[in-house]
Amino acid sequence: MTAIPFPAPPADSAEVVALRAEFRTFLDEQLKDRTPRQRSDNWYGYDRGFSRAMGQAGYLGMTWPKQYGGHERSAFERAVIVEECLAAGAPVGAHWIADRQSGPSILKFGTEAQKQAFLPRIAAGELSFGIGMSEPDSGSDLAATRTKAVKDGDVYRVTGTKVWTSFAHEADYVILFCRTSGTPADRHMGTSQLLIDLKNTPGLTIKPIIDLAGQHHFNEMHFEDAVVPADMLLGEEGQGWDQVMSELAFERSGPERFLSSIELMVQLIEVLKGRDSDAAQITVGRVTARLAVLRRLSRSVAGMLQEHQNANLQAAIVKDVGALFEQALPDIARELIDAEPDPRAAGAYASVLANIVHNSPSWSLRGGTREILRGIIARGLGTR
Amino acid sequence: MLAEMITRLFERSLDDAAQAAAREGQWLPALWTEVEEMGLPLALLTEDQGGFGLSFAEAGEALRLLGSHAMPLPVAETMAANQLFAAAGLALAEGPAGIARADDLTLSNGRLTGTVARVAWGEQLDCLALAVGDTLCRVPRAGWTIAAAGTSANFHPRPTLAIDWTVDAEAALPWCPLASGATVRAFQIAGALEAALDMTLSHTATRVQFGKPLQKNQVVQHELAKLAGELACATAAADLAGEALARHDVLGVAAGTLRAREAATAGAAIATQMHGAIGFTREHRLHLYTTALWAWRDEFGGQVSWAKLLGSAALAAGGPGYWPMVTGL
């Protein structure tokens, strides 16, 4: 039988239960002035003050060694923090990428000096990262990367363009996926990763890409003979592909893959209060069932990653099914409530609906398009 | 180990002829005897209760295998009935058993009367674990006659029973039989989807059209990926329901059964479509699974009832209470 194992996540320990309660109190206090519309920004809300408060309270770098500012807690304890943040609509953007994937990559592949330089500052909520993977001619086809880094003494000289870099205009660093030898025809070979200081790299210019809602999250980063110290190479030269793939399982299986539109569900339930028809009960019941099962699948992958198992197939399934769910919510809401989406409305429901309608198309594009994910799943089933 | 024994037994004894006979409503006494000899009816009992004390994962695997072999006999129902009897301190079934909760039953002065609709293999059962309000009654075969015939979507008997019995074995209801039934069906659905994915992978690998196996087409690969996603959801949903049942949490059971039912719908549709016309025939074994999925997704409480139960609880929790409710499922 072609079973795809999703091991049962362990029951919440007393520590996990206590952590969840303690963290909910922390969030209530931190987010008391945050409006529904702001909460609906979900993981692309960006607030350095909130990230510093998270760091000071010990909620970042949860699983990392204490010597690097971490807290040596389990993947499940970290998962509690992450899902509670998303469910509450906390503005996690300033630490999101660093805590989720850049930090773990530095911990896994970085030099001792890099670990000491970066990890404690990430765990303190002071250092913000973006992702430096996609290019104008290589979005889904990451191996077609053209951005080139040429070693020149004790520096790399970088030339090329990266796009869709969320918060490059705010963040401090990106991990750049680039080519250190050969040509795009060599595909996975000859690629490397470099730590790029966004605030202090001569030859780097950052330009906004405004999305369809008029919001500035994305950027284009253009490197023109930009100078990067050679000791900012992450891991081994030429091993960039394997390193970047190990980042992706962390990127694809988390609760952000099905909780992006959760604020709409919260507001929908508020609007339905006192007039819950049979249709409302049935629909909300079915949505809740899907959500509960997605959460279990995601927690299962967290367990596999904790055990250092390869979960690339499972992570692709979570993201594919999760994106369908979070993208379906606006239409599910529209079948229950007559309301026009209004991006500038004062009322909670219309403004949240507008924000979700505008942003939901990106959820099956970022972190691997739906089509790429289904290809990965099909390969995992042995079809190619 | 139990899984291997079950697989060997079913591969040996549950052939196409047996399936065809069951579709005609014929009981399979030899197969039932083998199922009993293996101890399957006791698989959900703890060691104290006389079971094997299987782990949660092992018990779930046994239930999934009933689905992945399209077991036509009420083995899952008997497992669930014995689990209820044992929890209530009543005698175990001495043969195949059913579980039910019915609304039009009256228990007065010890006499139980009324009807119970659509009980799997109702004519063949040894006894019934029947919920009447907050009471669990153990009703033996002498306690009912067949009031009306009925047939499941996979062509197995689902008669309506006319109950008339002076109850001599009753206890406080440990939990709702519908929750048990919905949970075992969720595992069976996961098993049937596993079989359907296997068949679909095998069919699309060997069936050549336009000079290449179907599976080499990207559009086919994407459908297979969606089917694998539904299987993953059904498996997780069954596990979720099973864990919820163990702590008597009916909302968790509702969440698990609802998502498993959705997976049954979506998965059966993809598997059938990917098989082309042959998947619509009795010639190919796929129909054993698709028709079972179409039967199981509506049994032990309908989708509407379960969704209203979970949805009204979510609405009652309110916006701020919604997420804490979800994390409790």
TrEMBL record, chain A:
- Supply the alphabetized keyword list: Oxidoreductase
What start and end residues bound the annotated signal peptide?
none
Any Pfam family from its record, for instance, is: Acyl-CoA_dh_M
Extract one GO molecular function annotation from the record: acyl-CoA dehydrogenase activity
Q: Name one GO cellular component term.
A: plasma membrane
Provide the Acyl-CoA oxidase/dehydrogenase middle domain boundaries: 131-225
For the Acyl-CoA dehydrogenase/oxidase N-terminal domain, which residue ranges apply? 15-126
Alphabetical list of InterPro entries matching this protein: Acyl-CoA_DH_CS, Acyl-CoA_Oxase/DH_mid-dom, Acyl-CoA_Oxase/DH_mid-dom_sf, AcylCoA_DH/ox_N, AcylCoA_DH/ox_N_sf, AcylCoA_DH/oxidase_NM_dom_sf, Mycobact_Acyl-CoA_DH
Protein name, UniProt field: Acyl-CoA dehydrogenase
Q: What organism is the protein native to?
A: Novosphingobium ginsenosidimutans
From TrEMBL, chain B:
Going by the UniProt record, its keywords in alphabetical order are:
FAD, Flavoprotein, Oxidoreductase
InterPro entries of this UniProt entry? AcylCo_DH-like_C (IPR036250), AcylCo_DH/oxidase_C (IPR009075), AcylCoA_DH/ox_N (IPR013786), AcylCoA_DH/ox_N_sf (IPR037069), AcylCoA_DH/oxidase_NM_dom_sf (IPR009100)
State a single Pfam family of this protein.
Acyl-CoA_dh_1
Read off the Gene3D superfamilies from this record: Acyl-CoA dehydrogenase/oxidase, N-terminal domain, Butyryl-CoA Dehydrogenase, subunit A, domain 3
GO-annotated molecular function: acyl-CoA dehydrogenase activity; flavin adenine dinucleotide binding
Domain of life, source organism: Bacteria
Presence of the UniProt keyword Kinase in the record:
no
Q: Taking every annotated instance into account, which residue ranges of this chain make up the domain Acyl-CoA dehydrogenase/oxidase N-terminal?
A: 1-84
Per its Swiss-Prot or TrEMBL entry, what cofactor is needed?
Answer: FAD
Keyword Protein biosynthesis on entry: no
**Residue stretches making up the Acyl-CoA dehydrogenase/oxidase C-terminal domain:** 181-289
Q: Which PANTHER family match?
A: ACYL-COA DEHYDROGENASE, ACYL-COA DEHYDROGENASE FADE28
Q: Spell out the family assignment given in the record's similarity comment.
A: Belongs to the acyl-CoA dehydrogenase family.
Its recorded name reads Acyl-CoA dehydrogenase
